[in-house]
Amino acid sequence: xxxxxxxxxxxxxxxxxxxxxxxxxxxxxxxxxxxxxxxxxxxxxxxxxxxxxxxxxxxxxxxxxxxxxxxxxxxxxxxxxxxxxxxxxxxxxxxxxxxxxxxxxxxxxxxxxxxxxxxxxxxxxxxxxxxxxxxxxxxxxxxxxxx
Length: 147
Prior knowledge:
Elements: H1 4-25, H2 31-34, H3 38-50, E1 52-54, H4 55-62, H5 66-78, E2 82-86, E3 94-98, H6 100-121, H7 126-143
Antiparallel strand pairs: 1-3, 2-3
């Protein structure tokens, strides 16, 4: 039987990581640096990984309402970053895929984010960086088991 206290501590730790993520690591998400809004960026990062999903599946995965998904996708289509494709098997389904221009945009943003993170890490001592890498590998190993 699991100790509920350790689950609470693990949950609190993950919440602190989320706060750190938003406060420190992803300042590059700001429209001024990337040219797109956070919700657009989240959608494009997801499509960068899976290439194509239905609008309803994307909305569910990103916790975005259907009306806002339509607005979001329309704005990205105008920029040439994503495309709509009707599903060949079900005409009620609209699939969204990232364009080559969208992939290039995400790759550029990833470079900006990596550079920003390197800048944040530049004040740490080498021993701290080694600890961060070691703990990071362990953290990824554990959180990858979460379903």
